[in-house]
Amino acid sequence: MTLHARRTKTALAALAPALLALALAAAAPANATPATGAGQAFPHFDHHLDHHARTHSNQIWGGYAVTGGTYTSVSGSWNVPALDCSTARTSAVSPWIGIDGWSSDTVEQIGFDQDCTRGVPGYHPWVEMYPANSIYFTETVVPGDRITASVTVSGTTFTLTESDTTQGWSKTYRKTGSDQLSSAEAIVEDLGSSIPPVARFDPIDFTGVTVDGSPLADAGTVNPTDIERGSTPLTQNSPLSGGDFSLGWLHA
Predict the structure, then answer these.
(1) pLDDT digits (tens, 9 = 90+) for 51-66
(2) Is the sign of the CA dihedral 225, 230, 235, 238 positive or negative?
(3) Residue-wise burial string across 137-164, b where 16 or more C-beta atoms lie within 10 A, e elsewhere
(4) In sequence order, what DSSP letters do the residues of 33-68 get, joined into one string?
(5) Is residue 15 part of a domain?
(6) Which pLDDT value is given to residue 251?
(7) Number of separate domains in the chain
(8) pTM for this model (two decimals)
C-alpha cells in the first residue's frame, strides 16, 4: 500500500463516525421523538409502502385492512415465524400493524422485517411514518418470539409502540403530524423496488387485533389482500375471526 493510500484509508476511518452521524440525522423524520428504551435507532434500505405502491401488476400487501371510518388506534399481536432462506437467498417481507395506506399515500406503521441476505435469515424491528424513512431498532428478534404493537393518535400526536414479550423489550416512538386516518391494517408486506422472490416462512398468526376498541372484523368494511405476482398469489389469509387470522406462504 502506498503512503498516499495509507493516509487516505486513515482519513476515511477518522471521518466514518461523523459521516454516520450525518446520515442518521438526515434520515430522521422532522418533528419526531426518537424511540425510547434500550438500543439505538438506525435507518434501513427499504421503504414500507402504501397499498397502491405496486410494481407493474404485483400486489405487495397480504392480510386485512378496514375502511369506512376515521381510525385513531390499532393494536394486536403476532408471532415471529421461522424463515427458510434456501428458497430465496434475497428476500424481505415485513409483518406490521398500522393506520392509513389502503387508500391514502401515508402510512403510520410498526413491525419488523424478516429478510434473507445472501441466504442468511435476519429479523429487524422498525417504525415508519411513510413517506419518511424507516427507523430500525437494534433489539433482538428471533423465530418463536411474540410481538405486540400499537399505533394511536391523539390530536396531532402519533404514538407507535412495539414490544417483544419473549425477549422482554419495548420501544415507543412519537411524532406530530396530520394524516387521513382512513384505514387500519394488520399486514405482511413484500419489500423491495424490484419485488424479489418471497422466502418460505412459517404461518404468521395475528391475534387480538383491535381498531378503536373493536375487533378488526367489526371496525368497518373489511378488505382482504394477498401478496401476488400478477395473478399468482404468494400468500393466503385464513378467514378473519374477530381480531384473529393467519397468513401463510404459498410459493416464491
Answers:
(1) 655 444 578 899 999 9
(2) positive
(3) bebebeeebebbbbbbbeeeebbbbbbb
(4) EEEESSS--B--S-PPPPTT--STT-B-EEEEEEES
(5) no
(6) 81
(7) 1
(8) 0.81
Number of H helices, E strands in the chain: 1, 20
The single-letter code of the amino acid at 31 is N
With a CB cutoff of 8 Å and minimum separation 6, the contacts of 5 are none
Distance CA 97, CA 177 (A): 18
4 domain residue, yes or no? no
Scanning the structure block, which residue is given the C-alpha cell 410459493? 251
Domain span holding position 106 = 31-249
Name the DSSP class of 133.
P
Residue 14 lies in a domain: no
Distance separating alpha carbons of residues 222 and 136, to the nearest angstrom: 30
> HSE (CB half, 13 Å, CA atoms) of 96?
35
Torsion of CA 149, 128, 45, 23, to 10 degrees: -120
As beta bridge partners, residue 176 has 157
Looking at residue 92, which CATH number applies to its domain? 2.60.120.700
